Amino acid sequence: MTDFFHGIPTLRFEGVETESEFAFRHYDPDARILGKRMEDHLRFAICYWHNFAWPGSDPFGGQTFQRPWFGDTMEHARLKADVAFEMFQKLGAPFFCFHDADIRPEGDSFAQNTARLREMTDYLQARMEETGLQLLWGTANLFSHRRYMAGAATNPDPNVFAFAAATVKICMDATHQLGGENYVLWGGREGYETLLNTNLRREREQAGRFLQMAVDYKHKIGFAGTILIEPKPQEPTKHQYDYDVATVYGFLKDFGLEGEVRVNIEQGHAILAGHSFEHELALAASLGILGSIDMNRNDYQSGWDTDQFPNAVPEVALAYYEILRAGGFTTGGTNFDAKLRRQSLDPADLILAHAGAMDICARGLKAAAAILEDGGLEAARAARYAGWETPAAHSMLRSDLDTIAERVIAEEINPEPVSGGQERLENLVNRFV
């Protein structure tokens, strides 16, 4: 045990009447929702990076957090891990997620990075065995170091491509050793800042080959988890090759990977791409590539990715509705890729931010399940497309324009518009949230 969270209790479910800050009002891991435990629906994961590696900086200001594990030694890395696992246990979250650079200090060479990562992987494995914590996913940080300023897989320098590929290899090894349920490829700088110095075809082909190599290596080592790509538009580069779910799916189809790779969708990234979170989730589900989610939000008065904890039940409910409609998570889960505000300095802030977010997700899940059980929304959806369930409609899709035109003339087809009933459906949803 460390003394960083001294005096802060382990959180328990106490119900909506509790006066305690350090308790769950809605998140009851053992509550049954649609025949499954709430914990097994939500599959909460706590991220390593924002909680234990981020110093509180933003584009206009430097470090505001002073943490005892900030430093570049292995002793600091072990202390960071101890504090992290203490927080995971206090929250009762079953999973965590990490980048390689979160858990080990940067070395002077690839060999030193590898040695440090392996040492910390063994250390985390021991902590996982002690606590029962599991790894939702691991990934490689291929964007923070200056070597990646022009991308990793898409870099114009083949030596950067090689360094990135080798890093993914050792990170996949670490994820496999720790029993991770997924491995994420997050293209933080896989894009361009100006077309004046960019070969789009070359960079896209490099990215596709890089992903094929990662999938091949997964099978070589017998990693049973899912490979995930996290779509993200714009930030930090002008254009990202993994802009949104539709873009990623087209990329996967081009390189024959649509049956191998799924997506990890973040709420904030969906908004930056001009979509709603539920749109991206529904599209991924319809394409068969829905994998996992990062649950956070943006500040709607800012035009960038602020990574705030969720606090709006209606938004969260619509997201979990699409997840439930898709059959729920398999290897995926709910990772809080969210960070404190720069002025939230206290250890208690870390705990309370997650506690509130977990309660919001629990409320959203319960609302989503109630909407699904009510059936009104799905009945309205089915009624809207009922005409397509007739034999004539089915045969039309196997027909041709000449035949269809003859039928329109013969049957004097002249359809009148039918109301979509959007406001009625919004009212229906609002009964539950």
From TrEMBL:
GO biological process: D-xylose metabolic process
Entry's localization field: Cytoplasm
Major location category of this protein: cytoplasm
Record: residues binding Mg(2+) 2: 266, 269, 305, 307
UniProt-annotated catalytic positions: 99, 102
Residues binding Mg(2+) 1: 230, 266, 294, 337
Cofactor: Mg(2+)
Gene Ontology molecular function, alphabetical: magnesium ion binding; xylose isomerase activity
Annotated cofactor note: Binds 2 magnesium ions per subunit.
GO cellular component, one term: cytoplasm
Protein keywords: Carbohydrate metabolism, Cytoplasm, Isomerase, Magnesium, Metal-binding, Xylose metabolism
Reaction equation(s) it catalyzes: alpha-D-xylose = alpha-D-xylulofuranose
Signal peptide: none
Keyword tRNA processing: no
Listed EC numbers: 5.3.1.5
NCBIfam families registered for this protein in UniProt: PRK05474.1, xylose_isom_A
Assembly behavior: Homotetramer.
Family: Belongs to the xylose isomerase family.
Name the record gives this protein: Xylose isomerase
Gene that this sequence comes from: xylA
